[in-house]
């Protein structure tokens, strides 16, 4: 198994309420400089300790819209050589180059950072009998678990994750994010609690187009990771947040659950609340908890899921971590602090605190919605989605 290099040390003391996040989406599709996300995260400087910061941007590679963009971290050149050989064997690489960076005070001991724009080899993917997305997921799991010192930071289309050890404003300037433009940005400031601060362990965590930034502690990591292993996912990055990215991929892309139901599975209502629901909703939530019990996220969390087409922010079912949302025209912003929002939107049309377990969803106009509609499914339809036996199910119309 690939070993994590020790780029930094674990925090000598712990502030469990630390970490800060932001999500910014212009639902009109208007592109924004990455500097906007840097500004929002700089306000939340004191929510971190310099052991982790990062960003994800969507719509940033319009010149390669149909290529999978692999952002790679290498501990040494041997890891790069092995990964290059893997890519040459299984993919068609149209461009491979070092990540554009600049020297920034406070950023030290960086790994070798490269990006690749590639497509699956059509002959290999035909032999594997996989979809392009499953083929890429398999490649990510193989590289992260089998090539010592190589780690995939992101692997989606027309998007990328930029992360490392440092404060987020340092990381943003290090990666020259002001030179990128995207319709959606997420950012994170990390205060490592139970895991060391290292480049691969910084947020966002990404798989395909999905990226997760997270404030909190997922105490169900053990059962979540064992559950994911049944579906071929390998949790190798040594931090709890990794499971959230894989669970969304499993539920949304593979099981085709509507977004609102996936959020209910991850931040499931308490049994006492389910008992007081109307019978139809009670049956639905009972079935959802029965099917996805091992995938439920326990512990305090506020997360933002980014994807091509929008983003969703979600609190745990008791709201043990802060999350604030605001709108200004077509712009939706979520953050750990209202001050971060007002740093980039001084006069929002509305500001509110989302309720526990209730998702805040942004959808980019004119883009294909990569997620199935948001209407509720019946218990039998949930089982259908999980088993994939579509011909035994009634047709479900979704918005």
Beta-strand content bin: 15-25%
CATH topology: Glutamine Phosphoribosylpyrophosphate, subunit 1, domain 1
What number is the mean pLDDT? 87
Number of helices: 12
Q: What's the gyration radius in Å?
A: 20 Å
Which CATH first-tier class would you pick?
Answer: Alpha Beta
**Ends apart, CA distance between termini:** 43 Å
Q: How many domains, as an integer?
A: 1
Query: How many beta-strand segments?
Result: 18
Query: Which ranges are low-confidence, i.e. pLDDT below 50, for 5 or more consecutive residues?
Result: 4-11, 387-399
Characterize the main sheet.
7 strands, antiparallel
For the biggest β-sheet, the strand order reads 8-3-10-1-16-15-17
Helix content range: 25-40%
Could you describe the 3D structure shown?
- 29% of the residues lie in helices and 25% in strands.
- The chain is of the alpha+beta class.
- The protein has a single domain, classed as 4-Layer Sandwich (Glutamine Phosphoribosylpyrophosphate, subunit 1, domain 1), CATH 3.60.20.10.
- The strands form four sheets. The protein has a seven-stranded antiparallel beta sheet with strand order 8-3-10-1-16-15-17, covered by helices on one side. The protein has a five-stranded antiparallel beta sheet with strand order 11-12-13-14-18. A four-stranded antiparallel beta sheet has the order 5-6-4-7.
- Residues 4-11 and 387-399 have low confidence and may be disordered.
